[in-house]
Automatic annotation (TrEMBL):
Matches recorded under CDD domains: NAT_SF (cd04301)
InterPro entries attached to this UniProt entry: Acyl_CoA_acyltransferase (IPR016181), GNAT_dom (IPR000182), N-acetyltransferase (IPR051531)
Organism, as annotated: Actinomadura parmotrematis
Entries under Pfam families matching the protein: Acetyltransf_3 (PF13302)
Origin: domain of life: Bacteria
All residue ranges annotated as the N-acetyltransferase domain in the record: 17-185
Protein's UniProt name: GNAT family N-acetyltransferase
Cross-referenced SUPFAM superfamilies: Acyl-CoA N-acyltransferases (Nat)
């Protein structure tokens, strides 16, 4: 079965950025910023060696979920869209298949503070709701990762959960976590 992202026309352009499906050739560009301490601190899975990163990045099932963000032909970040089933009772489970997604993002800190992450995530949300017809998106982060949860709020996601010391950080121990979500009807409805 083709990955849902493969059914769409790529690339997707915003005012300043280009989003496209990741390719094996994006390995070095994404490794360059993902191994930086300020990025490594917050990402959920961080390889400590280039070989480990290459093995993980090039796994077909992983690569299929990744989009890269380009600025003037340079990769400055990546986005993920993990399409999933919603919880449902058995009798209606078929209606809950592939209707929601977890989204994520990583941006090269050299390009921070210019609105690129906000622009890219807004484009990802639009792809998910308009292009794929998903009904719900969600994202999570450590509560200490203020830039991430502020981005979620900027793009219109609502905080649905604050968990207390439920999230284990690789160096900081148990931290609080935040979960945010957005429904298609909220995104697509006229203001």
């Amino acid at each position: 079965m083709r990955h849902p992202l493969a059914t769409l026309d790529w690339p997707v352009s915003t005012d300043r950025l280009l989003l496209r499906r990741a390719a094996p050739d994006d390995l070095d560009a994404t490794w360059t910023y993902r191994q930086l301490p300020e990025v490594y601190e917050w990402i959920g899975s961080a390889a400590t060696t280039y070989d480990g990163y290459r093995e993980r990045f090039l796994r077909q099932e992983r690569l299929a979920d990744v989009l890269v963000v380009e600025l003037d032909g340079r990769v400055i970040g990546d986005l993920t869209l993990w399409i999933q089933d919603a919880y449902a009772q058995e009798e209606v489970a078929d209606q809950a298949k592939d209707v929601q997604a977890e989204i994520g993002w990583t941006l090269d800190p050299a390009f921070g503070g210019k609105g690129y992450a906000t622009e890219a995530v807004r484009a990802l949300i639009d792809v998910a709701f308009r292009g794929l017809g998903l009904r719900r998106l969600y994202a999570g982060c450590f509560s200490d990762n203020e830039p991430s949860w502020r981005l979620m709020e900027r793009v219109g996601m609502r905080r649905e959960q604050h968990t207390v010391k439920e999230s284990l950080h690789r160096t900081k121990g148990w931290l609080d976590g935040f979960a945010y979500a957005l429904l298609a009807e909220e995104w697509l409805s006229p203001e």
